[in-house]
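Figure 6 in text form: structure in, sequence out.
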């Protein structure tokens, strides 16, 4: 394997090195001021948001909805089945709980709007700060008592300023830009543009001293009256209701708003109003039931009196005696059937009462009907309750929304359907009674022959007696129901119980300080990191060794560092131990592997300005101080720089004269530098008009043959191969080539061209030198990754010639300043602690 291939393999292995976490950390730390600025801006914005954003508080409460097993306030369960005492059943029966219905009902706009109007939640009191306006609710020093609002469907807002012991001034805030001030006195009515109201001091509030201008102190207040519909819509938007837990009949109500106390009052008022409406609905239903029972009692009382009179007259006229044992047995069996018929007829009477009450209602004028008067069967009770609930809802909302509103139209449609369902239930119930009666009559036929044997007088007596029992039973039943309803009316309780008063945390829900600080930290990190990475993405210059090794297989034989404040292009001196000199010695060592016994070295690059003349000059110098005779040829005939860079006086004769056959003496062409006696610099001479043709002439071969006889090494500074073809013209006389690239100068895309030159073998025994390397986190270049390239210089400092040839720049110095600052801080703290101890 050739030496070039060995260097290539080493180069490929070094390309596998990646940033370590520590290097990545130091890269970002090198941008520490940028991070500090980003954090400063981020936290400034965060603190501004926390300080001036309108706070949002959260309050909650729980509402227990009692089912048929939870009928008392204490939560103990009572039996509510068909058995038990009638009064107990009447007082404690309730329908099954449907949480979805309850959630929909409690958040209806009608209820919310009612609590807004009753509690003046649409009156908003604000403390007018310099930047933020904060709602203070009951903490305002005054309270507004309204008389007449000019437009209850429009917003009315004004400032209250200049408060003193007697009153203050009012300034409207409207679109007309009217800034007229109205003077007011505490407790006196004032008329401001048709709005009549008065302001009174709240108890316990000490008014400002007379003559004090609160406005100058920034203490003015702001009042806003909003239409009830707007405020109720805001409450409904911020209100959330959900089941508290599975398998419970408890719902949780949550409300958000800018004032904690006001939100709690709104939530408590909402629950209280829902409870009140529940009790009111129950009372209305019981009152209607009592009215219906009283009407039917009057009718039954008259019928019972008539039957009892008939029975008395019959007994007096017939002198009825006890029937015989046989008749008693027959009549006993018959009496059992009569008892069943009696019960059935009582149901018929009750049915006729309800049916008559329902059917005599005028069309569209729906009234409540009794739902608990003893009709057997469960279906009619559910339908009656549904119908009655709709009637109550219509009676409650008709004054609020109007007869012709869409809501009333929808309610009337639902009532019509419910009314038809009631008629259908009554019809079905009548058919059921008829079937039962027919069945009992057929059963009694078998006793007809035996009954005929019973004396006619006794038969008549039994019939009259049965009528008396029916009327008497109905009368007693209605009396009992009236008493039950009266007791239930006086002791009506709600099916809802608020488990605790609404409350919330004094820490606002918004702004969330913890979350904002996290966002500040995240953005303070992400913005600089994103900027740094985007900057790296759009950077088209080579920055690191990996940029080169990932795109070309050309071996890297040396890396030359950056020089700050360079005073001379010749930075290599005898016995110099500075970093740059050591790097050129490394270049000399690696170059010996490429050259072996050969002499001629070509220095080229892609474009001008990448430092090939600087590399050529110092390479020749480092070869010369090793005791070798070196010839440095200024063969960039188009733009020569070496003689100018070393500060020599330019001769009128040079290589261009020799190649054009104007002179034959080589000894007249070179320059000798002080302190470098074995280094001869062959200047370009006058710039020729045809440099490419001169290099193709026959004198070029003669030149190199003579120089090889005189010198140990020939270093050729040629033109850039990426711009002109001059370097290719002298390749037949070259033994080895050095290709120069410059960090932060050479484009990444130019590496593809360099790789093509290497893979196509246009340049023989070629190695790459990276020039002007800045080592440090910002540059993405870490010298310790590349072994001998920088390690030697770091260990031995700047050497003897450091001051004379400029200081080698290393970005690690910028990061070391941070370490020095840390050491200085901690050392000062240690000194202070020791001084205190002493």
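Output sequence:
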């Amino acid at each position: 394997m050739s030496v070039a291939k060995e260097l290539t393999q080493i180069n490929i292995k070094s390309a596998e090195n990646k940033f370590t976490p520590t290097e990545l950390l130091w890269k970002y730390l090198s941008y520490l001021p940028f991070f500090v600025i980003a954090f400063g801006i981020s936290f400034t914005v965060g603190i501004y948001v926390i300080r001036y954003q309108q706070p949002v508080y959260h309050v909650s409460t729980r509402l227990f909805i009692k089912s048929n097993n939870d009928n008392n306030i204490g939560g103990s369960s009572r039996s509510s089945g068909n058995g038990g005492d009638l009064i107990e059943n009447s007082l404690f029966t309730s329908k099954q709980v449907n949480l979805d219905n309850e959630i929909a009902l409690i958040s209806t706009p009608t209820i919310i709007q009612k609590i807004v109007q009753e509690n003046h939640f649409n009156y908003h009191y604000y403390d007018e700060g310099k930047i933020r306006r904060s709602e203070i609710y009951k903490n305002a020093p005054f309270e507004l008592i309204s008389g007449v609002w000019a437009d209850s469907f429009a917003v009315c807002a004004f400032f209250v300023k200049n408060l003193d012991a007697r009153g203050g001034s009012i300034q409207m805030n409207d679109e007309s830009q009217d800034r007229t001030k109205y003077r007011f006195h505490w407790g006196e009515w004032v008329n401001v543009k048709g709005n009549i109201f008065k302001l009174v001091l709240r108890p316990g509030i000490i008014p400002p001293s007379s003559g004090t201008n609160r406005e100058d102190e920034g203490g003015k207040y702001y009042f806003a009256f909003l239409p009830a519909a707007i405020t109720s819509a805001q409450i409904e938007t911020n209100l959330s209701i959900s089941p508290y837990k599975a398998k419970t009949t408890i719902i949780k109500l949550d409300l958000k708003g800018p004032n904690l106390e006001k939100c709690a009052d709104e939530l408590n008022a909402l629950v209280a109003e829902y409870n009140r409406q529940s009790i009111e609905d129950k009372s209305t239903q019981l009152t209607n039931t009592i009215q219906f029972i009283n009407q039917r009692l009057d009718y039954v009382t008259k019928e019972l009196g008539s039957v009892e009179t008939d029975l008395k007259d019959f007994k007096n006229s017939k002198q009825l005696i006890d029937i015989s044992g046989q008749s008693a047995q027959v009549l006993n069996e018959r009496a059992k059937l009569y008892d069943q018929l009696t019960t059935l007829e009582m149901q018929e009477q009750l049915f006729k009462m309800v049916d008559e009450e329902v059917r005599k209602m005028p069309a569209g004028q729906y009234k409540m009907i009794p739902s608990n008067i003893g009709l057997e069967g469960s279906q009619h009770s559910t339908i009656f309750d549904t119908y009655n609930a709709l009637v109550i809802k219509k009676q409650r909302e008709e004054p609020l929304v109007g007869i012709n509103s869409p809501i009333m139209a929808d309610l009337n449609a639902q009532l019509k359907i419910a009314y038809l369902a009631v008629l259908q239930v009554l019809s079905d119930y009548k058919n059921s009674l008829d079937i039962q009666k027919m069945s009992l009559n057929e059963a009694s036929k078998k006793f007809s022959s035996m009954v005929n044997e019973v004396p006619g007088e006794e038969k008549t007596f039994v019939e009259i007696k049965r009528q008396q029992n029916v009327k008497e039973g109905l009368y007693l039943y209605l009396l009992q129901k009236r008493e039950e309803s009266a007791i239930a009316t006086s002791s009506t309780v709600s099916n809802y119980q608020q488990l605790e008063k609404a409350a919330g945390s004094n820490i606002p829900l918004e702004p969330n300080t913890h979350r904002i600080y996290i966002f500040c930290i995240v953005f303070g990190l992400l913005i600089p990191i994103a900027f740094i990475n985007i900057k790296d993405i759009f950077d088209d210059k080579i920055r690191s060794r990996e940029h080169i090794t990932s795109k070309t297989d050309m071996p890297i034989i040396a890396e030359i560092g950056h020089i700050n404040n360079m005073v001379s292009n010749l930075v290599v001196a005898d016995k110099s131990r500075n970093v740059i000199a050591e790097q050129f010695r490394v270049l000399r060592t690696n170059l010996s592997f490429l050259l072996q016994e050969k002499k001629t070295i070509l220095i080229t690059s892609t474009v001008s300005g990448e430092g090939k003349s600087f590399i050529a000059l110092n390479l020749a110098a480092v070869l010369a101080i090793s005791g070798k005779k070196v010839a440095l040829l200024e063969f960039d005939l188009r733009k020569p720089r070496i003689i100018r860079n070393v500060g020599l006086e330019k001769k009128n004769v040079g290589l261009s004269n020799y190649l054009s056959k104007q002179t034959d003496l080589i000894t007249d062409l070179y320059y000798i530098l002080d302190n470098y006696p074995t280094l001869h610099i062959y200047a370009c001479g006058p710039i020729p008009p045809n440099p490419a043709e001169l290099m193709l002439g026959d004198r070029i071969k003669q030149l190199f043959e003579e120089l090889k006889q005189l010198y140990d090494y020939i270093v050729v500074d040629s033109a850039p191969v990426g711009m002109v073809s001059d370097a290719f013209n002298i390749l037949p006389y070259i033994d080895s080539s050095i290709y120069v690239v410059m960090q932060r100068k050479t484009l990444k895309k130019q590496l593809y061209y360099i790789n093509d030159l290497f893979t196509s073998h246009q340049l023989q025994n070629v190695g790459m030198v990276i020039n002007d390397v800045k080592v440090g986190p910002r540059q993405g270049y870490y010298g310790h990754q590349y072994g001998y390239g920088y390690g030697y210089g770091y260990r031995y400092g700047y050497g003897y010639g450091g001051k004379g040839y400029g200081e080698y720049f290393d970005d690690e110095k910028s990061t070391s300043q941070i370490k020095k600052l840390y050491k200085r801080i901690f050392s000062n703290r240690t000194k202070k602690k020791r001084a205190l101890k002493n």
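Caption detail: The two ends are 72 Å apart (CA to CA).
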